[in-house]
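Input.
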Amino acid sequence: MANEDEYSEMHETRQRRVKVVAWVVIISLIVVGGGATVFALLFG
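Output.
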């Protein structure tokens, strides 16, 4: 039982980290894409 509790804690920590990384990637893609669109409108 102790091993299962330990694994579930590690799994929850990993899932939280994956969600944070996914949100950071999504936000950075939006920011970079938006920035590229603005530059294309201004200089294109």
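The helical segments are 2-43.
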